[in-house]
Amino acid sequence: MCMANAVFRVGGAAILLSNRPSDSQSSKYQLMHIVHSHTASSDSSYNCIMHKEDEEGHGGIVITKELLIAAANAIKFNITSLAPLVLPISEQVYYLLNCFVRRLHVANIKPYVPDFKRAFDHFLPHVGGSKMVLDELKKNLGFGEDDMEASRMTLYRFGNTASSSVWYALAYKEAKEKIKKGDRVWQMAFGSGFKCSSVIWRAIRTINHEEMNPWSDEIDGFPVDLKNMESFIYFNSKVT
Questions:
Q1: Among 13, 40, 87, 96, which one is least packed by beta carbons within 10 Å?
Q2: CA distances (Å), 180 to each of 29, 89, 118, 173, 212, in order?
Q3: Residue 213's pLDDT is what?
Q4: How far is C-alpha 192 from the chain's CA centre?
């Protein structure tokens, strides 16, 4: 299990959910949507991350070169299912018109990427253990560097804590007092299988600085400048 311990750091999160209307007075967020996508029907997706034994019977994690392709496909399927639930009608119309024009070869145009910033105020993706993952999500979904700050700082400070990283990132936003009443939060996590899940929340109230927050004692020191960082295991990792 040395590989697993090297790739993933110890991390966890516990979230208390309730469906009782009376609890809305003390709750932070209202759950709006959950979209789960699983691509295990594809052999390459299913086998890209596996727990196996070697010739000597030692258990370990096998990561194949198909990992990034499997991740991209799972994320694409997930976003395709999520988009009709959250995007404004205008964005959906632009997308459909673009598909129509390209399918009929009316004009040589690029595929239209919907503006998800019109649907969400905060985007908190799984940090993925690599700067490359966050960079690709930023580029393909049209988010800015400010939108990626919470996830980048989570990767820097806590490393790859797997899917619980989306809660560390949300805690960063709360510690920075950036969550306002009515804000829409998009959490995206993914993992072996290959699977991708999106959860959409609406802030019931403005979240002020709280003591019970993993960032509380050091939030004033963030964000940090990562541009000139020469060696950092999570930011230099590559799949081989």
A1: 96
A2: 11, 24, 16, 10, 18
A3: 92
A4: 14
